[in-house]
Amino acid sequence: MAAGVPHTAAARSAEAFPGIPRRRTLLRRYLRNRAAVAGTILTAAVVLSALLAPTIAPTDPFSQSLSTTLRGPTPAHWFGTDSLGRDVFSRVVRGGRITLPVAFVGVLAAMITGVPLGLLAGYRGGVGASVIMRLTDVLLAFPSTLLAIAITSTLGVALTTVSVAIAIFSVPIYIRLVRAEILRLREREFVMAARCVGATDRLIIFRHLLPNALGPIIIQSSLNCALAILTVSALSFLGLGAQPPVPEWGAMLADGRGYMRVAPHVVVFPGLAIMITVLGFNLLGDGLRDAYDPRSTR
């Protein structure tokens, strides 16, 4: 009977703390979630269309034809033309090559900065952690869009500045998320066992804590991508991001808003591109959350 105690304790510990699910289990849970699969398809379609933009839409997005301005969708121009006779389909497809990288770079920079700070604040504690968390609270007190507008207005209007703004307002999200995960994990049995056998802090952090916190980090990154895309488009719409004639989705909405009544297609298709992309990343994030959640019943 005594020999069975460790096995039972280990089973209960595994049940209480599943860590990162095995790949097959994770994939099985994910594929059972229809919304998640739909989000994956939408996201993959948008990313692939951006990567293959020169092949999908070979028409020059900057080429003007004043004789064909504000034409509706036709076989020659699938999404119609804008006020300068430019092909809207080519501009929408090429817009993904601008909006997506700016958003991804901002989210990646936030993750690279916020995760180590969250690890430090959660594992070490002390004065350093207090300073980090108070600065985090200050940044979180500002609405993300308002903070992005302030940063771009201060640093100058440019797409690189938009990435910086996204990184700055996203860093606190990662810090709080990772700190909460580390505080939850550091008192678990497997961490205490690692300390008992003489494992160093570095080994505990990178071998035990960080891998088990990757799930929430990945989920948050997917959701942050949706917010970042909205931010890029919003700042470009306000004139603080991409500048004409750059074919960015938000800038296209700004250019076409004066023609909504006579040629609604000039704003409908860029707006749909933003909606589909944001929806895809949100569904992807929700699906990953459900897949990583061991209590999910899907």
Poorly predicted parts: 1-21
- Work out the number of β strands: 0
- Considering DSSP H and I runs of 4 or more, what fraction of the residues is helical? over 70%
Question: If helices are DSSP runs of H or I spanning 4 or more residues, what is the number of helices?
Answer: 12
Total domains: 1
Q: What CATH architecture do you see?
A: Orthogonal Bundle
Shape: elongated
Instruction: Give the CATH class.
Output: Mainly Alpha
Relative strand content? under 5%
The major β-sheet equals: none
What's the average pLDDT?
87
> From N to C, what is the helix and strand string?
HHHHHHHHHHHH
Query: In angstroms, what separates the terminal alpha carbons?
Result: 37 Å
Would you tell me the structural class of the helices and strands? mainly alpha
Radius of gyration of CA atoms, rounded to a whole number = 23 Å
CATH superfamily: MetI-like
CATH topology: MetI-like fold
Description:
The protein has 298 residues and is mainly alpha-helical. It has one domain: MetI-like fold, CATH 1.10.3720.10. The chain contains 12 helices and no strands. It has helices at residues 4-16, 23-32, 34-51, 53-56, 88-123, 126-140, 144-155, 159-185, 189-196, 201-237, 249-256, 265-292. Helix 2 (23-32) packs across helix 12, helix 10 packs parallel to helix 11 and helix 11 (249-256) packs antiparallel against helix 12 (265-292). The chain is elongated. The two termini are 37 Å apart. The model is unreliable at 1-21 (pLDDT under 50).
